[in-house]
Amino acid sequence: MSGAARTWLLQRFTAIYLTIFLLSVFGYMAWHGPFTFAQWQNWFAHPGMAVASMLFVIAALLHAWIGVRDVLIDYVHAAWLRLMLMALIALVLLTSLLWVLRALALAAGPMTG
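The structure assignment produced for this chain is given below.
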């Protein structure tokens, strides 16, 4: 399988997971009514939800990376500029991943140490 086919397939799989996750979360929230902060925190602290949320974040970042990378490859013809923009976007996405990891850890409850 070529690299282009792999990235095409990866972007489709991430889109499917993002859609399923969001529909599930919105459905759960609609079915169970308004949440208090404590209920929301307990829900996101559950190991299954924590893993699903982390997979959601990874899928969203991969999906964004593939889409932006393809746009840059197609429309930015100066190699140096394309490389600089890709590095900047990679830095922003990596920073976003670290921020979300911290937010999920804090949502799980107070850390002891």
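Interim note for the steering committee: The first helix runs from residue 3 to 32. Helices lie at 3-32, 37-45, 47-75, 79-107.
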